[in-house]
Write a structure and sequence with these properties.
The structure holds two protein chains of two kinds. By secondary structure, chain A is mostly helical. The longest helix of chain A has 27 residues, at about 215-240. In chain A, helix 2 (about 40-65) runs parallel beside helix 7. Chain A has helices at about 20-40, 40-65, 75-90, 95-115, 125-140, 145, 170-190, 195-205, 205-210, 215-240, 250-265, 270-290, 295-300, 305-320, 320-335; strands at about 155, 160, 165, 245. Helix content of chain A is about 70%, strand content about 0%. Chain A has a domain at about 40-250. A two-stranded antiparallel ribbon of chain B has the order 1-2. Chain B has a domain at about 20-215. By secondary structure, chain B is mainly alpha-helical. Classes of the chains: A mainly alpha, B mainly alpha. At the A-B interface, helix 5, helix 10, helix 11 and helix 14 of A face helix 4, helix 9 and helix 11 of B.
Chain lengths: ~350, ~290
């Protein structure tokens, strides 16, 4: 096990904790950068999709994993991001000017919705965002001037420095760059006073309030920041899909994002990437399951939601910290070998908590 | 006259929302968790009733009763085996768990019964009665009367029966109830089973109108609007909220041209958001006020 001896204050604010971190993350980034040389276009597209999912996952993770608020409506933010971006590009705004506008718009929408609703405690946010998701989908259908309605809306593929987005390597690098930028932004937000306030709210609202955290403000801020990240992911998703239709941004997409953060690991940014890989390859996983099951079950369309639900339930019940939690346990097992105790991660006995005061 | 006709239709569909909302409220009052799978339990109820009545050819009343019993037992074990494991976890875990269960139920239904749309004959199908020029179908009448009976039975149960009082005590204060010798865990499972049974009744009553397929589980989501409007935590509130939502939906559907297209489908959600913004404590809340921060 590695003990970190801190010899100066700068170490406290380093993003990489020690030389091992620096080595492995640099190797990972080099591997990601050389990826287009190693694999062919189809798989590159898949990885771009995983990057987009991870950005959206970061957004939801800040809200759910760090502030402890459940949102069932994040597909709405993906939709807002995608449509705003496509609309701006169609009207001749360049790509790099459009992205900041998308981020600001999603941030504002998140704040506008968040301010009235987040003042309520308890489960109301989950219910309200559920309603929001349906309303947003409906607006995408009906506001034809802006979204093209049910006919859909083509997304222009811009060029960056002479390279077209049709080239999957270019698009891959754009997605990867935004993922790395989002990761850095999220890490920095989460270790700033704002991020600390989020975590305090998650762990105990009463304690956070006693320490002077303005609950309403910080919850709304969390919702808005989360919306901004998700909006950015939506803008990239628009390029990935190529043709926007309102029914893409339905409740199922919101739930997929929730599955992503639960499977990846609540309350860890690593988890968003693990979760994104899992969710990105879930369709292939289901296809494999279909092959192994008897034909009468394997060919049913209901198999997908069923597996989806089953994975969700099993993770919540047996591995609440997700893939990242499992990884931490395995790592600790080898670090402490042979003195690892199972009790280290034993779930504490908990009792019903009440919102009623 | 047309308005009254619309209101009657609205009341009928509103009763269904009310029954589903009642299920939310019962569980919320007792355990402070929200069951997002309520609509899927309704769907399961409708499918079980279809199997018993439509496929096995059972008598309607007998099939209805048996369905309610089956779903109630299902609800009991759902709590005892699955939900209880995450007591005390943050609300997020419960939300995700019940959503997951909902997906499993929906997937199971579409694997077991297929994705076709089914219907089964009821004694009410296709019959109407006329009253002062108003046309009331027997199906709507059965829903309204069924809801009235169910609510009265529940009222009597919670007011006079020993176990009903025990339930109210446990939802008021778990610890005190436990010290008084009430088996709180068993009582909670029982509340889940009552809530599941209400959803099943709603499902069977609804089956003649919407027919049976997996999409009827979406009613569970609209019923949230009813529960919130009624002030989450009040039983009469759930029913009244449901009826208001039903009427609003009918009116929006008819006067769609004066408002904007397709408002009917989202009217319930609009009411939900507006209630939360303007008057979050709801119409019948027993709490003094929803806690605000």
């Amino acid at each position: 096990m590695r003990f970190i001896f801190k010899t100066n204050y700068a170490q406290d604010i380093n993003i990489a904790r020690h030389s091992g971190d620096r080595l492995w993350y640099s190797l990972l980034i080099i591997l990601m950068l050389t990826m287009p040389l190693l694999i062919d276009d189809f798989y590159l597209g898949e990885i771009s999709y995983v990057c987009i999912l991870a950005i959206a996952g970061i957004g939801l993770m800040i809200l759910s994993g760090y502030t402890g608020l459940a949102s069932l409506g994040h597909a709405a933010f993906l939709g807002i991001g995608a449509y705003t971006h496509a609309f701006l590009l169609t009207n001749g705004i360049p790509f790099f000017a459009s992205i900041p506008i998308v981020i600001i718009v999603s941030f504002m929408v998140g704040a506008l919705i968040g301010i009235p609703i987040l003042r309520l405690t308890g489960m109301y946010l989950a219910i309200a965002t559920l309603a929001l998701c349906f309303i947003a989908e409906h607006v995408f259908i009906k506001w034809e001037h802006f979204t093209g309605g049910n006919r859909g809306m083509p997304v222009p593929q811009p060029e960056i420095m002479g390279m077209s987005f049709y080239d999957s390597a270019t698009f891959y690098y754009v997605c990867l760059a935004f993922l790395i930028l989002s990761m850095f932004a999220a890490i920095n937000i989460l270790r700033s006073p704002t991020g600390r306030a989020f975590v305090a709210i998650r762990d105990s609202e009463i304690a956070a309030q006693s320490l002077g955290v303005n609950l309403g403000l910080y919850k709304a801020l969390s919702f808005a920041i989360s919306g901004a990240f998700t909006g950015l992911a939506g803008a990239l998703l628009a390029h990935y899909i190529g043709y926007l239709a309102p029914d893409i941004f339905n409740i199922f997409l919101s739930l997929t994002l929730l599955l992503l953060i639960v499977v990846g690991g609540m309350g860890s940014l690593h988890g968003t990437v693990f979760g994104a890989i899992f969710v990105g390859y879930l369709p292939q996983l289901i296809a494999i399951c279909r092959d192994y099951l008897p034909n009468s079950i394997g060919s049913q369309p209901g198999l997908e939601p069923m597996l989806f639900g089953l994975i969700l339930v099993l993770f919540i019940l047996y591995e609440p910290l997700g893939i990242y939690g499992r990884w931490v346990k395995i790592k600790l097992f080898f670090q402490l070998f042979p003195t690892y105790k199972k009790q280290t991660f034993k779930k504490q006995k908990v009792f019903t908590k009440s919102d009623r005061v | 006259m047309q308005l009254i006709q619309l209101i009657i239709d609205g009341v009928a569909s509103g009763c269904i929302y009310g029954l589903v909302a009642l299920g939310f409220v019962l569980i919320y009052k007792a355990t402070e968790t929200i069951n997002f799978a309520q609509g899927d339990i309704l769907m399961l109820g409708a499918f079980v009733a279809f199997s018993l009545i439509g496929v096995l050819g059972m008598d309607y009343i007998l099939g209805f009763a048996l369905t309610v019993v089956i779903i109630a037992v299902f609800g009991f074990f759902l709590d005892a085996v699955v939900i209880r494991q995450i007591i005390g976890q943050p609300p997020f875990a419960t939300v995700m768990l019940t959503i997951g269960i909902g997906f499993i139920l929906r997937g199971f239904a579409s694997i077991f019964w297929g994705t076709d749309i089914f219907s089964f004959s009821t004694p009410f199908s296709g019959k109407i009665t006329e009253f002062n020029g108003l046309i009331i179908s027997y199906v709507n009448l059965s829903i309204i009367i069924g809801t009235a009976i169910l609510v009265s039975v529940l009222y009597l149960f919670f007011t006079f029966s020993r176990i009903g009082v025990a339930m109210r005590a446990s939802s008021e204060n778990q610890l005190a109830a436990y010290y008084m010798g009430i088996p709180v865990k068993f009582i909670f499972s029982l509340i889940w089973s009552i809530s599941a049974a209400t959803a099943a009744i709603a499902g069977v009553l609804l089956a003649p109108i919407t027919l049976v397929d997996t999409s009827i589980s979406l009613i569970g989501l609209k019923a949230f609007a009813a529960a919130v409007l009624g002030g989450f935590g009040s039983i009469p509130g759930a029913i009244v909220g449901g009826i208001i939502i039903g009427i609003v939906e009918q009116l929006c559907g008819t006067y769609e041209n004066y408002l904007f297209g397709g408002i009917r489908e989202i009217s319930a959600y609009l009411v939900l958001i507006l209630t939360l913004i303007i008057y979050p404590r709801g119409l019948f809340s027993d709490k003094a006020e929803v806690k605000k921060v």
